[in-house]
Amino acid sequence: MKHNNEAIKNTKVTPLNDTPDWTFDLLKQYQHEIARVADFYRLDTYTNQIEVITAEQMMDAYASVGMPIGYNHWTFGKKFIQTEQNYKRGQMGLAYEIVINSSPCISYLMEENTLTMQALVMAHACYGHNSFFKGNYLFKSWTDASSIIDYLLFAKNYIAQCEEKYDISDVEATLDACHALMSHGVDRYKRPQKISLDEELKRQSERAEYLQSQVNALWRTVPKKAQLDNEAKYQFPSEPQENILYFIEKNAPLLQPWQREIVRIVRKISQYFYPQKQTQVMNEGWACFWHYTILNHLYDEGLVTDKFMLEFLHHHTNVVAQPEYNSKYYSGINPYALGFNMFIDIRRICEHPTEEDKEYFPDIAGSNWVDTLHFAMENFKDESFISQYLSPKLIRDFKLFHIHDDSDKDYVEIGAIHNKQGYQKVRQQLASQYNLSNIEVNIQVIDANIDGDRALTLRYTPHNGVALGKSKNEVLKHLHYLWQFDVKIIQATESGKDNVIASCPPQTKDE
Amino acid sequence: MANFIDRRLNSKNKSTVNRQRFLRRYKNQIKKSVTDAVNERSVTDINSGESIIIPKKDLSEPTFHQGDGGIKDRVHPGNDQFSTGDKIPRQPKKQGQGAGEGDASDNGEGEDDFTFSISKEEYLTLLFEDLELPNLEKNQLDKLIQYKTVRSGFCAEGVPANIDIVKSLQGSIARRIAMTSSKRKHLKALEEELLILSNDKYDNIQQKRRLIAEINDLKEKIAKVPFIDTFDLHFRNYAKQAVPTSKAVMFCLMDVSGSMDQATKEMAKRFYILLYLFLSRTYSNIDVVYIRHHTQAKEVDEEEFFYSQETGGTIASSALTLMNDIISERYDDNQWNIYGAQASDGDNWADDSPRCQSILEQHILPKSRYFSYIEITQRAHQTLWQHYKHVEDSHSNFAMQHIKSVADIYPVFRALFKKNTHNAA
Question: Where is region (Disordered) located (chain B) (predicted)?
Fold first, then answer.
């Protein structure tokens, strides 16, 4: 157990009560102490709103993928039924906590947790995740914590109104289509603007009318003056569009105004979750690091008992365990384990640098660890965080190795292992494994043929030659529902010729 | 800064709407599952929900994702044997291969089924969705009336066997207290006076004698008040009360001759389930008697009733005769509400049909609350239908219906309830 030397003042302190059963008074005492220590380490957080809920409510929260207010849709019902079934059969425990990136920051404590667990969750969620939400650059630029609850409420009500006004089935079909394209509803390379709920509401009705008029203008069928044929063919969109949902919202010819608004809602929610996808390792690692550090700090002060610490360490160890590749429990790298160990390691490099660390991390070796950690948390995402901070020591501790799998060969090759020659490569490969643009498929709108049959063309650009997954035809049906004219996906072959790999309605092969 | 909020008392079923949406969305698959389940469960099992199985692939929500092939680079922890440049032959199709991890789980998922439970209400709604169930709350079936004697207080007259001893003695005590209290008070006063006199230093002989005489007189009068009087007697009173009997017996009669195929039987099964459900809303205990027949009738259990295959001709009257026998043997029509439901494809031995009519009219219908006949066939009606038509015209507690599909079952019940509202009016 690491000791925090500055913090130890060996005065007589009465430890906090460590009964298993929590009460609101005890929670407040623990919260008070945790807040004090968090402040000591300069964790800057949104105001905490800690809600105590039952297991069933936790399943509700689970099913709505962490949105405290979700619109109604069958997919959430499916998730709820799944969660409930698994929970009842004992196949899974429920998460100890759910925390929502909002201001105030809402965290859920489950009723049946012990007092130790509640303290762990408070340190983890209310100070760890919360400060991450407030400090990390991705969250700062992509999400607006103060308006998200209002926006979700607006979305719920709007969709409920649509269901009343139009047919539930139509609303459902629209949502289904949007969900299929949800991960393509984000501007990866642009930063969004923030707007408040008031503006959002004001703009919404104007937008509906305005958009429709724009679309109508775009699709005007009055013949234009004969343009010179030798002029380059007018291309729309003028540049490929990666944000398919945005393109649909603004340009789909026959969508109803309310459908455009629904597309927009799904797009906005997708954008809200986008930073979480990119910072899983960091976010969880940061939260684990702080629950570990804060509770140890309290222990060093004599505020929590040995009994408390033993229970805490038991849970903590389970959370940050990393099974090895040949274990039956192995299912990829555990983001909690990687993130936690990286932050611990950064602290070690700052406090007790070795010669190797000084060589690899001349900037941070020996620096103030609190400053360094805050800097790391604020300015990186998983990919850049790993390529910046994964140390040789950690690669050795995890015994990381790289496998190069080329489907053309009948073997897989070990590209690098945890030795001096391999550190750079392992680090680089692990980082790219967290690069969203490598994980998510690159598919962009390249042409809408507005002068002709209005057929929409998308281009799939494979990463490392990986083919597009089988469900492409199903997704295309959804896209067709929104666009309402022919849609197709093309992919360049090796010879450079474009090949149609999927289309809706399906085309005959010989085309 | 932190605020604690106790949300435990908030509404729990936040996901109910979404659950309903889910059921609505997958109605077809769920209905298929329910239909399959009907065939596997008992007619009388209407109190449990059902577990629904939907193939997972039907539920998946498609997204664009990376497929097979190409170059994949992965980093894994826990190297115990590899060195840079090692070439490891592929293991047969994605088994434990670290690099194939994504695919392995994809394949695994594809074969799983999505299983969940629906409640009894959801089950019944789905089962009878095409049937538009009438409002069961408003429509109550007639019940057989029985009388039961119940205690209803006390009365002053009755047979000695009904004397309530406690109540009578209470009356006796009250009466005796009431009749002697003034005398006792007087007696007490006299006794005190006597005591004063006897403590006096003078011999008040005259006065004493008078007092003693008076005291004795009073004591005698008190003793003369009778211990018990006819006036004290209380008799337990009984009254007759009408109670509708909650016992019912449902006879399921079915033709199992060769011409009845499994689909027809399953349609009949729906009908029986529905009837049972209706009856169970009204009666607290219901016996179900299964009688199947071809040329001979036999009482069987449910399993055999629906699933054993027989061949041969058809004599419907045999089942009716057996039903009549069972009624007289086991189900007294004064105590049991008797319901009959006969299902057939209409085939019957031509000479037998008049017999059926007469057994129904003379024996069964007078004892039954209701008898229904359903004919499940695509062909023209035969003699049985024609004879039953006569029965229907002359008896109000007989209904018959020609059923081609499940949706036709309901009108039989409409007839049943229409009749009832007439009676009530």
Answer: 57-112
Residues of A in Cβ contact (< 8 Å) with B28: none
Q: Which helix (H) or strand (E) holds B279?
A: helix B262-282
Provide the domain limits for residue A494. 439-504
Q: Tell me the C-alpha to C-alpha distance, in Å, between residue B82 and each of A409, A414, A424, B87, B99.
A: 19, 7, 17, 9, 14
Same domain, A341 and A449: no
Give backbone dihedrals phi and psi of A309, rounded to 5 degrees, phi first.
Answer: -65, -40
- In this prediction, the answer to ipTM > 0.95 reads no
Q: Which of A422, A438, A454 is the last residue of a domain?
A: A438
Residues 184-203 of A with CB under 8 A from B: 184
Give the model confidence (pLDDT) of A124-148 as tens digits: 999 999 999 999 998 988 888 888 8
**A373 within some domain:** yes
> Which distant-in-sequence residues (6+ apart) come within 8 Å of B163 by Cβ?
B233, B234, B235, B236
Count of alpha carbons within 13 Å of B378, Cβ hemisphere only? 6
Is the pLDDT assigned to residue B132 strictly greater than 50?
A: no
pLDDT, position B52: 76
Q: What is the pLDDT of residues B57-72, one digit of tens each?
A: 677 788 888 888 788 8
Cβ of B171: how many Cβ atoms within 10 Å?
A: 19
Q: Is A108 helix (H, G, I), strand (E, B) or coil?
A: strand
A357 shares a domain with A464: no
Is A160 in the same domain as A179?
yes
pLDDT for position A511: 40
Q: Report yes or no: A419 at the B interface, CB cutoff 8 Å.
A: yes
Cα atoms found within 13 Å of the Cα of residue B72, Cβ hemisphere only: 21
Residues A258 and A170 in one domain: yes
- A360: in domain: yes
Q: Are residues A403 and A489 in the same domain?
A: no
CA distance A146 to A431: 32
The answer to whether residue A378 scores a pLDDT higher than 90 is: yes
Pair (A182, A303) in one structural domain: no
Scored b (16 or more CB within 10 A) or e, A456-466 reads bbbbbebbeeb
- CB contact under 8 Å between B24 and A74, yes or no, is yes
B15 → closest Cβ in A80, A326, A466: A80
Does pTM top 0.90 for this prediction? no
pLDDT in tens, A14-44: 888 888 888 999 999 999 999 999 999 999 9
Find the range with the poorest average confidence among A324-338, A349-363, B57-71.
B57-71
Chain A CB within 8 Å of residue B86 CB: yes
Closest CA in chain B for residue A322 = B77
CA B314 to chain CA centroid, Å, is 34
The three-point CA angle A427-A431-A432 to 5° equals 120
Most confident of the following: A370-374, B44-48, B149-153: A370-374
Chain A residues with beta carbon closer than 8 angstroms to that of B87: 411-414
Asked whether residue A374 is assigned to any structural domain, the reply reads: yes
Are A156 and A128 within one domain?
no
Mean of pLDDT values over B143-159: 79
Of A384, A412, A438, the residue that ends a domain is: A438
SS3 content of chain A, % helix, strand, coil (to 5): 50, 10, 35
- Tally C-beta pairs within 8 A across A and B: 257
Q: Taking CB atoms and an 8 Å limit, are A78 and B22 in contact across chains?
A: yes
Same structural domain for residues A347 and A409?
yes
Judge whether A390 and A427 are in contact, CB under 8 Å.
Answer: yes
Contact A465 B12 (CB under 8 A): no
Q: What is the average pLDDT score of chain A?
A: 85
Domains identified in chain A, total number: 4
Q: Does pLDDT of A166 surpass 70? A: yes
Q: Is B397 touching A (CB cutoff 8 A)?
A: no
* Residue A19 forms part of a structural domain: yes
